[in-house]
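Collaboration report, partner site 2.

Our partner group contributed sequences for two proteins of shared interest, and the home lab folded both. The records are reproduced in the order in which they were received, starting with the first partner submission.
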Amino acid sequence: MAEGCPVEFTLDLIGGKWKGIVLYHLIDGTKRFNEFRRICPSMTQRMLTLQLRELETDGLIHREVYRQVPPKVEYSLTPLGRTLVPLILQMKAWGETHQKDILAKKMPVEQG
Protein backbone atom coordinates (compact mmCIF):
# COMPACT_ATOMS: atom_id res chain seq x y z
CA MET A 1 0.00 0.00 0.00
CA ALA A 2 1.41 3.38 -1.01
CA GLU A 3 1.85 5.86 1.82
CA GLY A 4 0.29 8.82 0.03
CA CYS A 5 -0.31 12.20 1.58
CA PRO A 6 -0.32 12.19 5.42
CA VAL A 7 -3.01 14.90 5.50
CA GLU A 8 -5.26 12.78 3.30
CA PHE A 9 -4.60 9.77 5.55
CA THR A 10 -5.53 11.72 8.69
CA LEU A 11 -8.66 13.16 7.10
CA ASP A 12 -9.70 9.66 6.02
CA LEU A 13 -9.52 8.57 9.67
CA ILE A 14 -11.25 11.52 11.33
CA GLY A 15 -12.97 13.32 8.45
CA GLY A 16 -16.63 13.50 7.68
CA LYS A 17 -19.43 15.16 9.54
CA TRP A 18 -19.44 13.10 12.75
CA LYS A 19 -16.12 11.44 13.62
CA GLY A 20 -14.47 14.64 14.84
CA ILE A 21 -17.51 15.41 16.95
CA VAL A 22 -17.47 11.93 18.52
CA LEU A 23 -13.76 12.22 19.25
CA TYR A 24 -14.22 15.73 20.69
CA HIS A 25 -16.87 14.56 23.14
CA LEU A 26 -14.67 11.68 24.29
CA ILE A 27 -11.90 14.06 25.33
CA ASP A 28 -13.53 14.64 28.72
CA GLY A 29 -14.18 10.95 29.40
CA THR A 30 -16.15 7.86 28.49
CA LYS A 31 -19.57 8.10 26.91
CA ARG A 32 -22.39 5.65 26.43
CA PHE A 33 -24.26 5.25 23.15
CA ASN A 34 -27.34 7.13 24.37
CA GLU A 35 -25.17 10.00 25.62
CA PHE A 36 -23.98 10.49 22.04
CA ARG A 37 -27.61 10.38 20.88
CA ARG A 38 -28.40 13.26 23.28
CA ILE A 39 -25.26 15.23 22.34
CA CYS A 40 -25.86 14.83 18.60
CA PRO A 41 -29.63 14.50 18.12
CA SER A 42 -29.40 15.05 14.35
CA MET A 43 -27.11 12.03 13.90
CA THR A 44 -29.09 8.88 13.16
CA GLN A 45 -28.62 5.78 15.27
CA ARG A 46 -27.31 3.94 12.21
CA MET A 47 -24.76 6.65 11.43
CA LEU A 48 -23.58 6.78 15.05
CA THR A 49 -23.12 3.01 15.04
CA LEU A 50 -21.14 3.15 11.79
CA GLN A 51 -18.91 5.99 12.99
CA LEU A 52 -18.21 4.29 16.32
CA ARG A 53 -17.35 1.01 14.56
CA GLU A 54 -14.98 2.74 12.14
CA LEU A 55 -13.23 4.64 14.93
CA GLU A 56 -12.90 1.40 16.90
CA THR A 57 -11.58 -0.51 13.87
CA ASP A 58 -9.00 2.21 13.30
CA GLY A 59 -7.87 1.95 16.92
CA LEU A 60 -8.93 5.45 17.94
CA ILE A 61 -11.63 4.48 20.44
CA HIS A 62 -12.18 1.56 22.78
CA ARG A 63 -15.55 -0.15 23.22
CA GLU A 64 -16.06 -1.69 26.66
CA VAL A 65 -19.00 -4.06 27.07
CA TYR A 66 -20.17 -4.75 30.63
CA ARG A 67 -21.91 -8.09 31.02
CA GLN A 68 -24.98 -7.02 32.92
CA VAL A 69 -28.70 -6.70 32.38
CA PRO A 70 -29.42 -4.48 30.60
CA PRO A 71 -26.06 -4.53 28.78
CA LYS A 72 -23.88 -1.49 29.26
CA VAL A 73 -21.41 -0.30 26.62
CA GLU A 74 -18.98 2.57 27.07
CA TYR A 75 -16.68 4.26 24.57
CA SER A 76 -13.40 5.96 25.37
CA LEU A 77 -10.31 7.22 23.57
CA THR A 78 -7.44 4.78 23.17
CA PRO A 79 -3.87 5.99 23.68
CA LEU A 80 -3.68 6.45 19.89
CA GLY A 81 -6.96 8.40 19.96
CA ARG A 82 -5.58 10.62 22.74
CA THR A 83 -2.77 11.71 20.40
CA LEU A 84 -5.49 13.49 18.37
CA VAL A 85 -6.62 15.65 21.31
CA PRO A 86 -4.31 18.62 20.52
CA LEU A 87 -5.41 18.55 16.88
CA ILE A 88 -9.11 18.42 17.79
CA LEU A 89 -8.73 21.26 20.31
CA GLN A 90 -6.88 23.34 17.70
CA MET A 91 -9.73 22.71 15.24
CA LYS A 92 -12.20 23.85 17.92
CA ALA A 93 -10.21 27.03 18.59
CA TRP A 94 -9.92 27.77 14.86
CA GLY A 95 -13.68 27.36 14.47
CA GLU A 96 -14.38 29.66 17.41
CA THR A 97 -12.05 32.30 15.94
CA HIS A 98 -13.26 32.20 12.34
CA GLN A 99 -16.83 30.85 12.35
CA LYS A 100 -18.59 34.21 12.63
CA ASP A 101 -16.65 35.86 9.78
CA ILE A 102 -16.95 32.90 7.42
CA LEU A 103 -20.66 32.47 8.05
CA ALA A 104 -21.20 36.21 7.50
CA LYS A 105 -19.58 35.92 4.06
CA LYS A 106 -21.96 33.08 3.17
CA MET A 107 -25.09 35.06 4.07
CA PRO A 108 -27.00 36.23 1.00
CA VAL A 109 -26.83 39.98 0.42
CA GLU A 110 -30.19 41.54 1.27
CA GLN A 111 -32.00 43.07 -1.68
CA GLY A 112 -32.91 46.74 -1.12
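Second partner submission, folded after the first:
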Amino acid sequence: MATRMQAKVEAELAARTTFLAVANEFIEMMEREAKGPVTFKKARRFHDLLDSSIGN
Protein backbone atom coordinates (compact mmCIF):
# COMPACT_ATOMS: atom_id res chain seq x y z
CA MET A 1 0.00 0.00 0.00
CA ALA A 2 2.81 2.45 0.82
CA THR A 3 4.41 1.79 -2.56
CA ARG A 4 1.21 2.65 -4.40
CA MET A 5 0.87 5.89 -2.43
CA GLN A 6 4.52 6.75 -3.07
CA ALA A 7 4.07 6.13 -6.79
CA LYS A 8 1.01 8.40 -6.81
CA VAL A 9 2.91 11.20 -5.05
CA GLU A 10 5.86 10.85 -7.44
CA ALA A 11 3.53 10.94 -10.45
CA GLU A 12 1.84 14.11 -9.17
CA LEU A 13 5.22 15.74 -8.56
CA ALA A 14 6.43 14.81 -12.04
CA ALA A 15 3.26 16.24 -13.56
CA ARG A 16 3.86 19.57 -11.80
CA THR A 17 7.53 19.75 -12.80
CA THR A 18 7.27 21.88 -15.90
CA PHE A 19 9.78 24.13 -17.58
CA LEU A 20 7.94 27.13 -16.18
CA ALA A 21 8.06 25.79 -12.61
CA VAL A 22 11.75 24.93 -12.78
CA ALA A 23 12.67 28.23 -14.44
CA ASN A 24 10.73 30.25 -11.88
CA GLU A 25 12.37 28.35 -9.04
CA PHE A 26 15.80 29.02 -10.56
CA ILE A 27 15.10 32.74 -10.90
CA GLU A 28 13.82 32.89 -7.32
CA MET A 29 17.03 31.20 -6.18
CA MET A 30 19.04 33.84 -8.05
CA GLU A 31 17.07 36.56 -6.25
CA ARG A 32 17.74 34.96 -2.85
CA GLU A 33 21.45 34.74 -3.64
CA ALA A 34 21.41 38.43 -4.63
CA LYS A 35 22.88 37.95 -8.07
CA GLY A 36 23.77 41.10 -9.99
CA PRO A 37 21.03 42.98 -11.84
CA VAL A 38 22.51 42.21 -15.25
CA THR A 39 22.61 38.47 -14.48
CA PHE A 40 19.04 38.58 -13.24
CA LYS A 41 17.90 40.56 -16.30
CA LYS A 42 19.54 38.01 -18.64
CA ALA A 43 17.95 35.09 -16.81
CA ARG A 44 14.51 36.71 -17.03
CA ARG A 45 15.01 37.45 -20.75
CA PHE A 46 16.04 33.85 -21.50
CA HIS A 47 13.12 32.61 -19.43
CA ASP A 48 10.69 34.71 -21.47
CA LEU A 49 12.22 33.62 -24.78
CA LEU A 50 12.18 29.94 -23.90
CA ASP A 51 8.75 29.99 -22.32
CA SER A 52 7.20 31.27 -25.51
CA SER A 53 8.98 28.51 -27.48
CA ILE A 54 8.69 25.62 -25.06
CA GLY A 55 5.66 26.57 -23.00
CA ASN A 56 4.73 24.64 -19.90
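Feedback sent to the partner group on the second submission included the following. Helices lie at 2-16, 19-32, 37-54. The mean pLDDT is 81.
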